Amino acid sequence: MNQQPEIMITKKDLGQIESLLATTKPLPDCADELEGELARANVVANDALPANVVALGSKVTFKIIATGATFTKVLCLPSDVSQIDEGISVFAPIGAAILGLSEGQQIDWDSPRGQQRIEIIKVAHN
Questions:
Q1: What's the CATH number where 16 sits?
Q2: Would you say 113 and 119 are in contact if contact means Cβ atoms under 8 Å apart?
Q3: The pTM is what?
Q4: Is 3 part of a structural domain of the chain?
Q5: What residue numbers bound the domain in which 81 lies?
Q6: What is residue 2's predicted lDDT score, i.e. its pLDDT?
Q7: pLDDT in tens, 10-46
Q8: Residue 57 and residue 76 in contact, taking contact as beta carbons nearer than 8 Å
Q9: Is 20 helix (H, G, I), strand (E, B) or coil?
Q10: Of residues 107, 84, 80, 104, the one with CA closest to residue 96
Q11: Contact between residue 53 and residue 42 where contact means Cβ atoms under 8 Å apart
């Protein structure tokens, strides 16, 4: 695997995700990866997150490099997936992978079809 890109998350997102990781049983399959992402993240104040960085509630357009397929999803907490159109949980492997990335960054993602590289194309905050 290539060196992981730098990521940034807000104190609020960190607190919400850590709280869920501490209380959710059983833990999601990607819990170790998500905890690793949180541990290496640059944590910033809620109002200091740049507009081009993926956070909870962000509408994210990303591309799978190998296929060129592009998707737009809203990163959310597991409890919000059913209420959000095109929602994807931060507890899903792809959700954990994109958390904290900025536009133009790429990361390797362990998908059901094997490892794939994705690129963040656009980030919008509501």
A1: 3.10.50.30
A2: no
A3: 0.90
A4: no
A5: 8-124
A6: 56
A7: 999 999 999 988 888 777 777 888 888 899 999 999 9
A8: yes
A9: helix
A10: 107
A11: no
Domain count, the chain: 1
> Could you report the per-residue pLDDT of 66-110, keeping only the tens digit for each?
999 999 999 999 999 999 999 999 999 899 999 999 999 999 987
Which residue is it, tokens 């509408």? 59
Residue 58's CB is within 10 A of a number of other CB atoms, namely 24
With respect to residue 1, please indicate whether it lies within any of the assigned structural domains. no
> Residue 68 burial by CB count (10 A; 0-12/13-18/19+): exposed, middle or buried?
exposed
Which run of H or of E encompasses 21?
helix 11-23
pLDDT band at 1 (very low <50, low <70, confident <90, very high): very low
Asked if residue 93 has a cis previous peptide bond (ω within 30° of 0), the answer is no
User: Is 31 inside any structural domain?
Assistant: yes
Answer yes or no: is 61 within a domain: yes
pLDDT in tens, 53-62: 999 999 999 9
